[in-house]
């Protein structure tokens, strides 16, 4: 007779390990540390319609991307030579 622990006889293809793995599972602190390394993306655009398009594309992904839209050059430009000029 076959062993009762044969997973193929019980509808599964999973074969459990008979010995523990050599690599330890990461602790909660290590998993949290790995998740904390999220890249920051800065996106600059000349028009609001381009920003709207990028935001629409981000929303199509499975990720929930935290984002903030800043204002125009008139509000945030630090270059004195172009600060007050029109586009």
TrEMBL record:
Disordered: region residues: 1-34
Annotated keywords: ATP-binding, Helicase, Hydrolase, Nucleotide-binding
A Pfam family: DEAD_2
Every RAD3-like helicase DEAD domain range: 43-84
Protein name according to UniProt: Regulator of telomere elongation helicase 1-like protein
Alphabetized InterPro entries for the sequence: DinG/Rad3-like, P-loop_NTPase, RAD3-like_helicase_DEAD
Organism: Noccaea caerulescens (Alpine penny-cress)
A Gene Ontology biological process term: nucleotide-excision repair
GO molecular function, one term: ATP binding
Source organism phylogeny: Eukaryota, Viridiplantae, Streptophyta, Embryophyta, Tracheophyta
Domain of life: Eukaryota
One GO CC term on file: nucleus
UniProt xrefs under Gene3D superfamilies: P-loop containing nucleotide triphosphate hydrolases
Biased composition (Polar residues): 18-30
């Amino acid at each position: 007779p076959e062993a009762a622990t044969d997973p193929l006889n019980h509808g599964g293809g999973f074969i459990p390990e008979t010995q523990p793995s050599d690599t330890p599972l990461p602790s909660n602190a290590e998993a949290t540390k790995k998740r904390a390394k999220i890249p920051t993306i800065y996106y600059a655009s000349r028009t609001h319609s381009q920003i709207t398009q990028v935001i629409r594309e981000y929303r199509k992904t499975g990720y929930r991307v935290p984002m903030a839209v800043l204002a125009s050059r008139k509000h945030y430009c630090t270059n004195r030579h172009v600060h007050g000029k029109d586009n």
